[in-house]
Each structure stands twice: as C-alpha cells, then as structure tokens.
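Exercise 3.2. Students should predict the tertiary structure of the chain below and write it as structure tokens, then compare their answer with the key that follows.

Predict this chain's 3D structure.
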Amino acid sequence: MNKPAVSISLSSYGADLVRQRGQGSFIEILAAAGATRIEWREELLTSEDPAQLADATQAEGLESVYSSPLELWLAGQSLPNPELITALQRAQAFGARWLKVSLGYFTDNCDLQSLARVLDESAVQLLVENDQTLHGGRIEPFERFFADVEQHKLPIEMTFDIGNWHWQDQCTASAARLLGRYVGYVHCKAVTRRADGKLVAIPPAASDFQQWEHLLWHMAQGVMRAAEYPLQGEDLVQLTREHVTALAHLGQSQLECAHV
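Answer key:
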C-alpha cells in the first residue's frame, strides 16, 4: 500500500531561520526525514537561485510545491490577477509541479475563461487556498468558485488549510464536507488563541490528529498533505521524520477499509 505524499511547508521552521539559512539548506533535511515534497515559500526567499534549487531537489528525489501570497482575484476586477502568469513561470523555474495561491475577491463577475487561457499555457497545477481573510477565508465563496471551475472543467484543485478556517469562525468539518471533493492538498495546522486574543499556529496534539483523520474522510484517498505548523528543535531531521510519519498515517484507516 503506497503511503500518501507528505510535504513540509518551509515556513514551519520559522521565518528568521529560513531566511538566515536559505531554503535550499532544508532539502537534505526533508529528504532524510522521508518527506515526499517540499513547499517553497515566496515570502521567505532571499538570494536563492531557482535552477539550483530545482536541481538539488530533484537529486534528492523530492517534488516541489511553490507557495505564493498572490490573490487569484483582485477586488473589482473580472480578469484574473495579471501577476498569475509570472507566478506560474516562477513556480516552473523552481521545478514545482504545483502553484499555491489564495482565492482573493471572487465574485460572479470573475472571468473563468480568461483564467483557463492562462492555465493552458502552463504545465503547473494551480492550487487555490483558503486564507485568513474575510473575503478569502469563508466557505461560501469557495463553493461558488469550485462550482464554476467544475462547469468550465478547469485544472484547478483546492488547498484546504485546516487551521485557517478559525480566523473567520468557519466550521472546519462543514468546510471538509462541502469542499472535500475539490481538495488536492491539505495544509495541516493546529490553532490556539493566545492570552492577547491573537490566533496562532501550534504543533498538533493527539486530538488534532484525530480531528484531521475525520476531515480527510471527505477527500480523495491518499490526498497530499503538509505540515504548516512550528517544527522547531535541536534535531530537525528527527523532528521532521516524526511528523512526516504521523501525517502519512492520516487516512490510512480509510485506505485499509477500501482494500478489505
């Protein structure tokens, strides 16, 4: 039985450390820890050379996801964000098979045929994520967007960020039930509210893994999943390996049932 693909978002290691060491320094760590994929973070790039990272990643047998903070739809615009073309090209330069962006300001006036033309020119798979904003972090716009995506037969899947739904008080279980069939990538993130009222990502407890297990039942078997929560410690290889193993195990009972 093949294990599901596990990615590590490099933001998990902390912005300061990642910028200080460079994102390429984590390739060997992820490979040694048994990860399948690496998620480059555009907002944490410094002087990295895309071609070098693409070659180094391939040499270690890893695949790449490229994460951009770009919003697919800008406020008041019917055409997709003009920067999407550059983002797709940049993802390809990094050797990434996937580009992850946020939904942005999707309305019924958004032109999906124009989006289709942009995507036809790229081999990179587009993933659209729920973020923490009012306009891009609620269930209803995603229902409408993916209904249109389905109607136009566009090659787009959803990045389902488990933790981000909390920022807009959305029910994660309802989101999984309503949107699960569109999901191609799951960002795993436990969330807590600090004393000052701010929501922050934290490493998962056993109860979080149990909740995530139930959420994945609404998604495709073996869906790609990623750690996007703090991975900080002395031995990053061992720490990462533990979480890769735990995330790979999610949904295995679903697979086992399917093979009975």
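Discussion points: The CA atoms of residues 173 and 211 lie 9 Å apart. The beta strands are 6-9, 37-41, 63-73, 96-104, 125-129, 156-161, 183-188, 190-193, 199-202, 224-227.
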